[in-house]
Amino acid sequence: MPASVPRQRTLPAAENGQAHAASMNSGPAEGAPETGTTAPHTAENPATVTTGNAANGSAEGATCAETDTDTDIDTAHHTGKARTRITPDSAEATSTAPTNLTLLLIEDDPAGSPIVPDLLDRGGKPIRVRTARNLTEAERLLTDDVHCILLDLALPAPGSRPANGGNGTNGAASSSGGGGDGGEGDDELAVLKHVLELAPRHAVLALTTSGDAERGAEAVRVGAQDYLFRDELDSRLLSRAIRYAVERKRSDSAERRLAEGRLHARENRRLERGLLPTPLLDGSPLRFAARYRPGRSRALLGGDFYDVVRTPDGTVHAMIGDVCGHGPDEAALGVELRIAWRALTLAGLSGDELLGTLQQVLEHERADDEIFATLCAVDISPDGREAGLCLAGHPSPLLARPGHPARLLPYDDNGPALGLLPGARWPRTQVDLGTEWSLMLYTDGLIEGRVGDSGERLGQDGMVGMVSRQLTDGLRGKELLRAAVNEVRNLNGGELTDDVAVLLLDRVPQP
User: Fold this and answer.
1) 3-class DSSP state of 313
2) The pLDDT of residue 300
3) What is the pLDDT of residue 410?
4) pTM of the model
5) Could you say which DSSP state residue 96 is in?
6) Cβ(371)–Cβ(325) under 8 Å?
7) Which residue positions in the chain have pLDDT lower than 50?
8) HEC states along 215-282?
């Protein structure tokens, strides 16, 4: 017998991860090798299995990638820390009931084959056999309950004629020396390639003669799970080969889906990080820090959004907002509003005019008329001593100054949230900041968490007291924001259900 051939290959793209549970739940092969081992290709063990988890059943094999991410944004750049948690795919991990195997035999004269009778699965049950004399019949018989295909490589390819004008009853004349392939040029494996394209989710065994081992090895390279010799085959050997091929196919498919899931998760992380802002503060003496934590499980981006830019006149503009809802649509709308705010700010709009234009953007882009967004915008004068404040249904910022208790900025002129009232107006309030200060903008996720078992929410007053204590302890910048978010989570007794975004601007006089 020839030496075993490595079974590493790229699965056809047509599979697309849609392997049906019915065709993959035959259970581990009898005598299957342990994880990470290779079964030798011998008369007793015809199939080579090289997998990471082939013998562990579908609960170990079928997995999908999920991400659980906490993204921390600080200074003028954003960084992210993400971890990927792999969990079983429930659709396949729970399907463990053994089923009878079904074999589709494709050869010129299946009725005369001595290998068909008395095939048994691992439970001793007969393996059901369907027979097809050509690919047209095979396509008709290839239903989802077929687990494995046994293909005679001597079968003529579509549109070709058998060698010597015969029907290739035993495959001897046409399988040795490549006769009978015809069609599709000189490709001796055209019929196999056609079957692989026709049945991308099924395990395939190639059948040839012992004098044509090279062709069998090439069949495995092309995509078959294994090859067998017709003249050395018996029912026991074929039964084992079928079970190994089915298990191998299931494991290969699970590994490919796992790799695709990981790649998809990495791409999503890169995309979402790319949608987070990079503050434009070149030339400003203000220090910036931000913390962003989406409430949506396994997401990097939520419906909260923020941005900070410095215009050519030296004014620093900061904004934070919150789209109602927690899904990906809300996250996408938040990104659109942030980008629109930056473009309008750099174009010279501010205050009521800017918010009115943002409302038009929201009304055009939202998927539902019930969607709205709250927003807080401040513009800080070039000397850093004064600021203008516009609120659109959003909590007022917190101002902390040395020698003064932390307090909320005035919010009596708070206008409506964007998207609620057509033609609404948003008054601008002038605020005195002083020479040294810290200004914290935040979304309501920071103040709506519960406090212990009382069921009460932290609220703005609780947040002011918490931040004041942390400032007294000497916390500043990103350390202050991290401590604030962590304490809110601890008070809540676990993860917060809402998105949390917090940004901090500090003005420290130069010596």
Assistant:
1) coil
2) 63
3) 92
4) 0.54
5) -
6) yes
7) 1-98, 162-185
8) HHHHHHHHCCCEEEEHHHCCHHHHHHHHHHHHHHHHHHHHHHHHHHHHHHHHHHHHHHHHHCCCCECC
